[in-house]
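Our consortium's second objective concerns turning raw sequence data into structural hypotheses that experimental partners can test. To show how far this objective has progressed, the report includes one record in full. It was chosen at random from the queue rather than selected for favorable results. The single chain below, 89 residues long, was entered without modification.
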Amino acid sequence: MQLPDDVVDDVRKRLHRVAGQVQAVERMLDEGRECRDVVTQLSAATKALEQAGLRLVAAGLTYCVQHPDEAEEEGYAIESVERMFMKLA
């Protein structure tokens, strides 16, 4: 399944944000920052990764609904995409 350009751009943006958040966590640890601050930043990075994954799955579900026969031929039957969603849930 070919992902739409806007989805790829959005996911790349989210991943870039996650990379920055992870770097911030490393700096915070080096600086001896408070545990609660580090955990807050880790939580933000985790959420951003989850959102990136959900964005991809949403695009897959949309594709499956709009093109069910093609999606199944490409190995993206609706059940397969549902399993991907459940991995993120």
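The partners drew two points from this record. The chain has a mean pLDDT of 93. The CA atoms of residues 29 and 35 lie 9 Å apart. Both points have been shared with the crystallography group to help prioritize constructs.
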